[in-house]
Structures are given as structure tokens and as C-alpha cells.
Specification:
This protein is of the alpha/beta class. The chain has helices at residues 2-20, 92-100, 124-149, 165-176, 220-226, 246-261; strands spanning 24-25, 29-31, 34-45, 50-60, 76-81, 104-108, 154-163, 183-187, 201-206, 229-232. Strands 1, 2, 3, 4, 5, 6, 7, 8, 9 and 10 form a 10-stranded mixed sheet that branches.
């Protein structure tokens, strides 16, 4: 069944590519006079026989679907990792906010209908490690694809953002590939420890209702030593995914903006 699903999606994505030669194009979003173009595409990592759906948010000065590579020179890349069960089209409130500020934002869908269910009992870290490894490999693969599509981006200053399980994927990358990203921001990741190091720079926004596992968050002394910033908000874990109020979304965006602006 899993192989059939992959083959069908591969054929569909291949046919779409042959037909248009471009990612699927959505109507532009106009926010305060600014155009954010949204493209969706499904890439295939043949080395793992795995599809990787992504959505790209890009501030632009044109509605033309043809990419203007000159507009993307030196833009910073944000890779956004949804929480468990999230799709490439979720977390638009964060993606659009950062695209408006001039970042190129790519949301990577990690969970597929054919994947095994995320374990919820037992040794959570040990049982979920495989899922995080899979997500990390997808992020690395997507980055290499982007280097071909957007060669002018600033790949020395990658920003990783993740919520919940997507935040755990981001933190796994921060621990195992410390030079990959310059900044890592998590919204309530609960399982993978924040790296005890000054690089990458780490910012974690914590929910009002769900605590992290022991040793995930650094002590106050470690926070000062490694310049790690941790802020608690009055938003529940699940609402961080986009179900919160406008005020809660604005608060999260403001915290992210202020942290990025300070770096």
C-alpha cells in the first residue's frame, strides 16, 4: 500500500511538472500592499523513496509566476516544521509574517498518511528518534533542492522554526548538525533537549499548559551562559498551531520578530 501511494504521488507530481515546469501556484496574498506569492510543490527523495510536500512563501514585487531570481539574492531562508499531523499549508500566520519581512519561508510537511503512528507511550525519546531522524533528513534534502532553485539565498544564515514534534526535529538538527542553522526557534518542543551551546542561537516559546520532559530546557545558569532565550506565553500547546486568537498569533509573531531583529 505504501509503495502504491508513493508511486501515485510521484506520477502526479511528475505530470504536473511536465505540464507547467513550475510548482503549483496559488493566488497571491496581499497584506498591507505587500505581495506574498505562495507555491506548493512535492519533491521526491529517491534515496529514501519518500515524498516531501513543501509550501514556499515569497515576498515579491510581481504577480508573474516566473521567478525573479534577482529578488531572492541574499534573502534569508526560514524552514518551518509543523507539529505532528501538520501539513505544508499550516502555520500560515507565521509564514506570511516572515515572508512580509523579506524572508523566504519554506514549510516542510513531515507526516505522510502512510507513516506509522507517532508513539505516545513507553520510552518516548527512543521510540520517536526514528521519526526525528526522518524529519532531519527531509530538511537537509529540501535545503539542497532549494540551493538549485534559489541559488542566491543566504544559506549561511538559515533559520529553523518548529512547533511541538516539528520543534523536536529542529532541535535534533541543532544538536546533531550544529553548523546547519544560525538560529533555531521552537514553539513548545517537549522531547529533544535544547543544545547547551552558543551556536546556533536558540529561542524557545513555551505554552501555558504542557511542560517539557526533564532536562529538555536549560537551567537559568545555562540560559545565561549560552545566551538561550526562553519565554512563556498564555497560549496552549495546540493553539500555537494556528487555532489561537488573533491576539495570541500576534504575540507569537512579535516575539519571533523581536528575536530575529536582535540577532
Amino acid at each position: 500500500m505504501k509503495i502504491r501511494y508513493l508511486i501515485i504521488l510521484f506520477i502526479l507530481s511528475s505530470c504536473a511538472a511536465k505540464k507547467s515546469g513550475k510548482p503549483a501556484f496559488h493566488p497571491d496574498i496581499y497584506i498591507n500592499g505587500i505581495i506574498v506569492r505562495i507555491d506548493t510543490i512535492t519533491w521526491v527523495d529517491s534515496s529514501r523513496n519518500r515524498i516531501i510536500p513543501v509550501t514556499i512563501y515569497n515576498r515579491t514585487s510581481t504577480t508573474n509566476i516566473k521567478y525573479d531570481l534577482h529578488q531572492n539574492v541574499h534573502k534569508k531562508l526560514v524552514i518551518l516544521n509543523p507539529g505532528y499531523g501538520g501539513t505544508r499549508n499550516d502555520y500560515g500566520y507565521i509564514a506570511n509574517n516572515l515572508a512580509i519581512k523579506g524572508y523566504l519561508v519554506v514549510t516542510v510537511q513531515h507526516d505522510l498518511p502512510t507513516d506509522d503512528t507517532l508513539p505516545r507511550t513507553g520510552d518516548i525519546y527512543k521510540l520517536r528518534k526514528h521519526f526525528w531522524d526522518t524529519g532531519a533528513k527531509s530538511v537537509l534534502f529540501v535545503t539542497e533542492k532549494l540551493k538549485k532553485e534559489y541559488p542566491g539565498l543566504d544559506y549561511n544564515s538559515i533559520i529553523l522554526i518548529g512547533h511541538s514534534n516539528g520543534g523536536d526535529i529542529a532541535m535534533l538538527i541543532a544538536n546533531e548538525y550544529p553548523k546547519f542553522a544560525k538560529i533555531v526557534i521552537t514553539l513548545d518542543n517537549r522531547r529533544v533537549p535544547l543544545p547547551r551551546s552558543a551556536s546556533p542561537r536558540v529561542f524557545s516559546i513555551r505554552s501555558a499548559d504542557q511542560p517539557a520532559d526533564p532536562n529538555v530546557l536549560p537551567s537559568e545558569e545555562e540560559q545565561k551562559k549560552y545566551r538561550i532565550r526562553i519565554v512563556k506565553v498564555n497560549t496552549t500547546h495546540n493553539d500555537m498551531g494556528g487555532m489561537g486568537t488573533d491576539a495570541q498569533k500576534q504575540e507569537i509573531n512579535r516575539l519571533i520578530n523581536n528575536f530575529l531583529d536582535s540577532q
